[in-house]
């Protein structure tokens, strides 16, 4: 197949485990641009949380926030918002059943949280503290929860009519619109820029990359991916710490 676009996840896929991008990977992405192959990043991170990596990779497009917000450069193109009523319902239900749950709510303006601890995920983000006592009036794209009672979450997702998934090896769960996700965003983007999914190569490691890897023309899992992701992939590249994405691109696509 002729690859016209490459899309890759960030954490544990194109990023090393220390959250760095190698110089080699940067050069391979630059060579893609030189040869006219479009590139995109598809990440769970909010745009500002991915910005330092986007500055190195310089992709044409950024699918952020688990596919709920899509950018061309720094320009916002489209998104899949939860809707204010659904988001406010979820926040209220989560905190009623689990008052100590840690919440992150992504909006047009940034990320709101009810905690202040900074870690590798939260540090780069434009984030604001809130107790979530007042309802949101901004457009909400994603609600992430670190619960003490995860057994309650499936019922909330069903009541709200949205999808729920857990991040790999973390006590963190995301609520999105039922039609949202990295693959959905990629499909809409492909229609807009006239690139078929069959002409797209997708790289990933986690369950939120599963659909993208299994439904694009070429789906590649890195060696450190979840077993179920590797099972559905067309190929398995070297691990993230071995620059598996860049080496696969150079050897098999360029």
From TrEMBL:
<dbReference type="InterPro" id="IPR023214">
    <property type="entry name" value="HAD_sf"/>
</dbReference>
<dbReference type="GO" id="GO:0000287">
    <property type="term" value="F:magnesium ion binding"/>
</dbReference>
<dbReference type="GO" id="GO:0005829">
    <property type="term" value="C:cytosol"/>
</dbReference>
<dbReference type="Pfam" id="PF08282">
    <property type="entry name" value="Hydrolase_3"/>
</dbReference>
<protein>
    <submittedName>
        <fullName>HAD family phosphatase</fullName>
    </submittedName>
</protein>
<dbReference type="GO" id="GO:0016791">
    <property type="term" value="F:phosphatase activity"/>
</dbReference>
<dbReference type="InterPro" id="IPR006379">
    <property type="entry name" value="HAD-SF_hydro_IIB"/>
</dbReference>
<dbReference type="InterPro" id="IPR036412">
    <property type="entry name" value="HAD-like_sf"/>
</dbReference>
